[in-house]
Hints:
This protein is mainly alpha-helical. The chain has one domain (about 20-150): Winged helix-like DNA-binding domain superfamily/Winged helix DNA-binding domain (Arc Repressor Mutant, subunit A), CATH 1.10.10. Helix content is about 65%, strand content about 5%. It is built from eight helices and three strands, in the order H-H-H-E-H-H-E-E-H-H-H. A three-stranded antiparallel sheet has the order 1-3-2. The longest helix is centred in the N-terminal third of the chain and has 20 residues, at about 25-40.
Amino acid sequence: MKDKNKNKNENRYASLRLDDQLCFPLYSIAKEITRQYRKPLKELNLTYTQYVVMMVLWEKGNMTEGELGQIVHLDSGTLAPLLKRMEKQGYIHRIKPDNNERKLTVELTQAGKELKEKALAVPGQMDGCIPLEEEELVTLKDLLDKAMTKMEFVK
């Protein structure tokens, strides 16, 4: 009888087992990949989050701070100090339009535009950081993209 109660009690806590969590391997892998980005991004004087912001600006051009925050899933409390640091580094300008003081526009400086050429080396340096076959990587990316489109991110 004692064994039955023990098994019942263990089953009660099964949902708290770390090995059964999806969030933990996602967290661990994201943390490790970000760590691996440090070396190639050090040459660009960027953090991983700054690199993500730069990729958006290189691809899409000027935009408001709010639009940028939505794309990179960062709230203004996190994004604003990041952009201030990037402005001090000389990669971007934050411009207040005359008609709306609250709506900052973010644009690349010449130095920010030129950094794009140096950044071309980063994807090659990161190639293979996730030890999966090409087909598995495509499947993983597709599943993560699908999950992201269905999730509601804090704005």
